[in-house]
Write a sequence for this structure.
């Protein structure tokens, strides 16, 4: 199975700041990567697919980058509604696996 | 609009089985594979498997092959996941999800919280 290592596990930031979350795959996943946001008690919401494409309705302050085994999710000018947990997931061969998550908290 | 409706909670005893449901609406049920995902606090997400509603074909995560059985009822556009020989390790939130717009999981059910307890 492909292992997805996500960092950091948690982050305490202020509104207006910029954050970057990274995800490293144990082998090349050829940009077959998604990022999700999850709020407490809610379902995950797709943010980015195919490593760099924003899902419908996702604000442009979110962006995805990377290739091969290294990927990042960047959030510019954090808003209060951006706090929650973020997960990466690869789609390169089953079983599809997820990163351990990053919990974004208000400082 | 696409909707995946799941019951909010299930409480079952250890050793028992449970059948979780996911009722789809707003799209052609047989056109998209239905996936199931497990979320345990502190354990992260795990992909359980997928089923093709058109012909019932399935693919499972090897880890869940002896635990989960995926089925569908095309007449009611409902997908099911049966979990057997339940233990506390099976207590989790279970989501159904489909790759609708772009081959990624862009629609999710609300999740069913399964509690295994005597």
């Amino acid at each position: 199975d492909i292992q997805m290592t996500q960092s950091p596990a948690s982050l305490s930031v202020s509104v207006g700041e910029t954050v970057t979350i990274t995800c490293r795959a144990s082998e090349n996943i050829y940009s077959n990567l998604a990022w999700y946001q999850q709020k407490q008690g809610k379902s995950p919401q797709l943010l980015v697919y195919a490593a760099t494409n924003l899902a419908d309705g996702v604000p442009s302050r979110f962006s995805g980058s990377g290739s091969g085994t290294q990927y990042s999710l960047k959030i510019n000018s954090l808003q209060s509604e951006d706090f929650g947990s973020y997960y990466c997931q690869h789609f390169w061969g089953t079983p599809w696996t997820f990163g351990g998550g990053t919990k974004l908290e208000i400082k | 609009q696409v909707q995946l409706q799941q019951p909010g909670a299930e409480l079952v005893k250890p050793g028992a089985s449970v059948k979780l449901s996911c009722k789809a609406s707003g799209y052609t049920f047989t056109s998209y594979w239905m996936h199931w995902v497990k979320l345990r606090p502190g354990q992260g997400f795990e992909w359980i498997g997928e089923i093709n509603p058109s012909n019932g074909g399935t693919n499972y995560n090897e880890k869940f092959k002896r635990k989960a059985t995926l089925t569908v009822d095309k007449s009611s556009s409902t997908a099911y996941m049966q979990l057997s020989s339940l233990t506390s390790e099976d207590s989790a939130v279970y989501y159904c999800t489909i790759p609708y717009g772009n081959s990624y999981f862009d629609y999710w059910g609300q999740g069913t919280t399964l509690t295994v307890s005597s």
